[in-house]
Amino acid sequence: MLEFIVENLAPIMFTTVMVMLLLGYPVAFTLAAGGLAFFAIGVEFSHLSPSINLFWPLLQSHPERIYGIMNNDTLLAIPFFTFMGIILERSRMAEDLLDTVGQLFGPIRGGLAYAVVLVGALLGATTGVVAASVMAMGLISMPIMLRYGYNKPFVSGTIAASGTLAQIVPPSLVLIVMADQLGRSVGDMYVGALYPALLIIAAYCAYVFVITLIKPSWAPALPREARTLGGGVTSLIVMVAIAVALYYLADLFLLTGISPEWRTVVSLALGVGAIYLVALANDRFKLNLISRLAQQVIIVMIPPLALIFLVLGTIFLGIATPTEGGAMGSAGALIMSLLKGRLSFATLKQAVDATTKLSAFVMMILIGSRVFGLTFYGLNGNLWIEHLMLSLPGGEYGFLIVVTIIVFILGCFLDFFEIAFIMVPLLGPVAEKLGIDLVWFGIILGINLQTSFLTPPFGFSLFYLRSIAPAGNWKDPVTGLTMSGVKTSDIYKGVFPFIVIQFIMILVVIAFPQLVMVYKSGDAVVDTSKVNITVPMSSPGGSSGMTLPPLGGAGGNGGLPGLSQPPIGGSGAGNLQNESGNTLGLPPLQGLGNPPAPANTSKPAEGAKPAIDLSQPPKFN
């Protein structure tokens, strides 16, 4: 029995820690305590099994490992993006976006649902925080959608799923953590996630469209009396066309002397800035140049879109690193809130407090995972995971499907930070050994972790929505009518179709890795079959070939003290001699040619051997 325990300490350790986590014990302390406890057990049993590589002095490596966490520049992006998201959430940007986009799509059936999906994507690209997105959209849009007769499960599912877009739409905290744990660039992870994220957004909109066709009563159009901004889509299209024209004119004719990246940035700024100034002037001076709807859409939409470009555009163009992009995003969020008059000391204090708590939470989990990892690797747990996963049928696709199922099940109970810091370091090396691109692997896990926010009974997005949805009867302040509340079963039923959509998207990304591999499009590809290597050879009349240099310098023994310069490879070539004439026991070198002629010699010496033939290996007698 003891031998069985000793030989299986790694799976016993992994199972014990996972059970403790599922029972609800704090993650950081469970990982650290499990690592230290099994470290002591492993040291005591190390004499019974050669596979246990643990000894007490190994504990001295922990301070350096913990310092490596604190010194990680990649993780610095987490507090920046968190701070940016909280500031934007406190500035009521979600309220402005939902109201404006809802008015824009209001005349069409399901317009409010489309608005929730699109605003969820925008909030994901600016805030990156699921809790802020779900709660903001739930508080603002749920009463309006219920007021105008939307189906409760449909409303709940749309809001909960759209809020989770913050998990996969860059700049996602999940992608930052994935990049760190897989040892890949955050910028590559962002570029790789772009097309899958757009595909998921399109799938959500397609689901809303299908509902409007088969269940039109679930998603009616906004009544005319509720469209306070009126019509005027034509003037909005004209303003967008003007912005595009200005962009191309600036890019083609005005900005020819700067780099392509900066030309793109400046051209976009000119085109978008021009229509933004027109909208502001139209609002300020009542010029009536454009419709009120177009004016409001431009004024409300351009600042967050500009912030998204400031963060993601500079990263994609290679102008800024993700950490620098996060810093610029934080500064941009502060400026936006200040210009709107919504930045107060209380708001700033709340944002700093929340950012500090989240950063400390991440650091503590990372420290615990380092303690766990040292012991687990000392017990050869990585080899156990590797053998287990490599023995799965189906090769890389079998591995990806099994990992998707495992992570999905864990996501029902654990937070994405916990899964990323425990499972990803164990699965990443196996994926690399199978030849799976780690950025592709990270995007698949990211979509899976996004799904985990929707899975009952412990999906965090469901908890966030439940906390703000009316549980009992409530009175609508606009109509004065008493309306029934939203049941928990309504929320569960509403998210089920979106969970199916998420699984389909995971399968699509697995089947078509080209959606992610776009991040490699900028890499130079070298065709090795067309590469020619030319080695310069010494000519009969010069000394530029690849002959051996004189050992003692140009005519002396300055190169190696105490050694005279022997002939190398000539007819009398022999051993190296010291000043007293005794040989040093080195064999003669044959076939390597003569040393180069001195610098003041214009012709080679008589009887000189031809230059080195590099096509034949040297011969040593």
N-to-C span = 62 Å
Helix content: 55-70%
Structural class assignment = mainly alpha
Compute the average pLDDT: 80
Can you list the strand order of the major beta sheet? 1-2
The number of distinct β-strands equals 4
Assess the beta-strand content as a share of residues: under 5%
Low-confidence stretches: 524-528, 535-608
Number of helical elements? 24
Your description of this structure?
The chain is 61% helix and 1% strand. By secondary structure, the chain is mainly α. The protein has a two-stranded antiparallel sheet with strand order 1-2. Strands 3-4 form a two-stranded antiparallel sheet. Strand 1 and strand 2 form a beta hairpin. The radius of gyration is 33 Å and the shape is globular.
Secondary-structure topology with pairs:
Blueprint: H1 2-7, H2 9-22, H3 27-45, H4 62-70, H5 77-90, H6 93-105, H7 111-126, H8 130-147, H9 152-163, H10 173-182, H11 186-214, H12 233-254, H13 260-285, H14 292-316, H15 322-339, H16 345-378, H17 381-390, H18 395-411, H19 416-422, H20 424-433, H21 438-452, H22 460-468, E1 474-475, E2 482-483, H23 488-511, H24 514-517, E3 589-590, E4 619-620
Antiparallel strand pairs: 1-2, 3-4
Helix pairs in contact: 2-3, 3-16, 4-16, 5-15, 5-16, 6-7, 6-8, 6-14, 7-8, 7-9, 7-11, 8-9, 8-22, 9-22, 9-23, 10-11, 10-19, 10-21, 11-21, 11-23, 12-13, 12-14, 13-14, 14-15, 16-19, 17-20, 18-21, 21-23
